[in-house]
Amino acid sequence: MSQFDNVSVIKKANVYFEGKVSSRTVVLSDGTTKTLGFMQPGEFVFDTSKKELMELLGGQWDILLPGESEWKTFNAGESFNVDANVSFKVKVSDFADYCCSYTD
């Protein structure tokens, strides 16, 4: 899906890691939420409270998922799932444009 129709956007940005990661929350008509974000180069650790589907829209990132010992590289158009209540690591060498969908 390349666009979301009939949504509300929270104007205030979510800003993390001294401004190297930012996102905006999008609320769909059925009440589900997504975030559209951008990451600058760096290494980050994210904690989840819900299950997440992470879709890379542009750029590249290396991901270390919980319980795994090897980093995996993802390119634009690829995605991965993360369970609720875990942490995962992200390394970005250039940029990463992403969409995070929250699921139950």
**Cα end-to-end separation:** 20 Å
pLDDT averaged over residues: 95
Radius of gyration using CA atoms only: 13 Å
* Oligomerization state: single chain
Tell me the fraction of residues in β-strands, as a range: over 45%
Apparent shape: globular
Output the number of helix runs.
0
Class derived from helix and strand content: mainly beta
Q: What proportion of the residues is helical, as a percent range?
A: under 10%
- Name given to the CATH architecture: Sandwich
Q: Which homologous superfamily in CATH is the superfamily?
A: Jelly Rolls
Named CATH topology? Jelly Rolls
Task: Give start-end ranges of low-pLDDT stretches.
Answer: none
CATH top-level class: Mainly Beta
Helix and strand element order: EEEEEEEEEE
Please report the total strand number as a whole number: 10
The description of the largest β-sheet is:
10 strands, antiparallel
Number of domains: 1
Pfam families: Ppnp
Enzyme class: transferase
Family: Belongs to the nucleoside phosphorylase PpnP family.
GO molecular function: guanosine phosphorylase activity; purine-nucleoside phosphorylase activity; thymidine phosphorylase activity; uridine phosphorylase activity
Walk me through the structure.
The chain has 104 residues and is mainly β. Helices cover 0% and strands 59% of the residues. Strands 1, 2, 3, 4, 5, 6, 7, 8, 9 and 10 form a ten-stranded antiparallel β-sheet that branches. It is globular, with a radius of gyration of 13 Å. Pfam families: Ppnp (PF06865).
